[in-house]
Amino acid sequence: MKFFLPLFSLILVFALKAQAFVLPEDYKNGTEVCEEHAQERQGEFFQWVNVPVDYSDLSKGQTQIYAYTKKVFNPDLPTVIFFTGGPGVSSRATEFALPHTNVLFFEQRGISCSRPKTKVLFLNPDFYSSENTAKDALAVIKAWGLSQVSVFGHSYGTIPATVFASLFPSATRTLILEGVVYRADETLWLTETRDQLLQNVFNSMTAEEKQKILELSKSNLVPNSWFSKIGNMMLYLNNGTEAYKTFLQGILSNNDMDLPSFINNFFPDPNKPEETFSFGDVTMGMIACREMSMADPRMSLTTIFKNSVLVSDHNNADRKAMCAPLGLENAYQTNTPFKADNYPVKVKVIYLLGETDGATPLEQGLAHYEKVAIGLKSALVMKNGGHLPSLGLLKDNRDCSGEECDSLKQNILQTKIFEKLIRAETIEKSLIEEFNSAGELKWNIH
């Protein structure tokens, strides 16, 4: 069991899965939340940036966006602004450091220190949108005295990052997208690619292991979608299919493990109080239910076994968990899912894609490449890469010495590659070849 704990924790951090939640009666605004979590914010060089509550009606006043860097800002270095995933994930969950670049983080509306002053505004759907996030980001870079930055979006963050580059090309040096959302409709939710990857994992197991998996799926001790629920999380990882196979073999062979209890840890508690700092439940629901098809009852990320074959359960549990508490269960009837086609990008775009990404399938990124980027563009596709093919390496990079640097060689090289991308420089083929020869991860130039 000890072998799996670090992996289990990593998946729960990176999966960024929707959680059911209950709104408390008392409301805390961003200033109050920040004061309560001063310890967790140590080392942040921050400022609150005033932005319009409604960009189309300035008479509605202003709200505050919390933005920060993790080191003293150096005006002589290039700057990248980071659009984190989710929606609703605090930027602190995916922080990374670059030695020769300013990294500008900001908390999106409704998250942690960017919660508005009043509960009424907090629960107003019109307060939230990806366009608002993009426009808030422009105010952030202006507050830092910048006229142009590189823009990096990951997962959901590729939506407001795309919007930003489309609306504000003069403020965008280059756009870097990783784990890309092209369309937030059925092509994102109901994808044969994701299902086939998990089916391949099941098919590769021994007959005894398959029997245990099917028996557990038929029992009343765990949800019958457990295999795909955990598998989808595993596909966030590079080499995720192999990681999932190893994971399954480990838990299935451990006779001392309370397997149902362990599996149920991956499913949300419907009575979980709304989080105020580490995750923005309300931001997640407001955007995902209206812009990303989460309220559509036909959508489901999970599958169940029928005669040993995974098929969609057609049970959108996220609709009840995230949309219902906000009164947005029927938002799909009046809201159109995000389509990147509506935001063509003329600046240089670089794509960092995982071949076996289980959250935003590869075909989403390639469609964005073909149909949205209409200027200079390039794409790197990681063989067996997951949802964080580059960001995972950046996050885990650190100062090292001696033999430890050997195990971090690909992290170090990817950081070098990424900083070249930020400066809109051409990546030499020799640097890609050096990265590919330094470890098991391999980039292919699309």
Detailed description of the structure:
This protein has 446 residues and is α/β, with parallel strands linked by helices. It has two domains: 2-21 and 190-333, no CATH class; 30-185 and 342-445, Alpha/Beta hydrolase fold, catalytic domain (Rossmann fold), CATH 3.40.50.1820. 37% of the residues lie in helices and 14% in strands. It is built from 18 helices and eleven strands. Strands 1-2-4-3-5-6-9-10-11 form a nine-stranded mixed β-sheet, with helices on both faces. It has a two-stranded antiparallel ribbon with strand order 7-8. Helix 4 (130-143) packs across helix 5, helix 7 (192-203) packs across helix 10 and helix 17 (409-422) runs antiparallel to helix 18 (429-437).
Relevant terms:
Rossmann fold; 446 residues; disordered N terminus; 2 domains; alpha/beta; 18 helices
Largest sheet: 9 strands, mixed
The gross shape turns out to be globular
Number of helices: 18
Beta fraction of the residues? Answer: 5-15%
The count of β-strands is 11
Rg (CA only): 21 Å
Order of helices and strands: HHEEEEHHEHEHHHHHHHEEHEHEHHHHE
CATH superfamily label of the largest domain: Alpha/Beta hydrolase fold, catalytic domain
The residue ranges in which pLDDT falls below 50 over 5 or more consecutive positions are 1-10, 13-17
Give me the CATH architecture of the largest domain, please: 3-Layer(aba) Sandwich
| Overall domain count | 2
Decide which structural class fits the backbone: alpha/beta
So what's the CATH class of the largest domain? Answer: Alpha Beta
Indicate the mean pLDDT.
92
What separation lies between the terminal Cα atoms?
40 Å
Task: Give the spatial strand order of the biggest sheet.
Answer: 1-2-4-3-5-6-9-10-11
CATH topology of the largest domain: Rossmann fold
Q: What helical percentage do the residues reach?
A: 25-40%
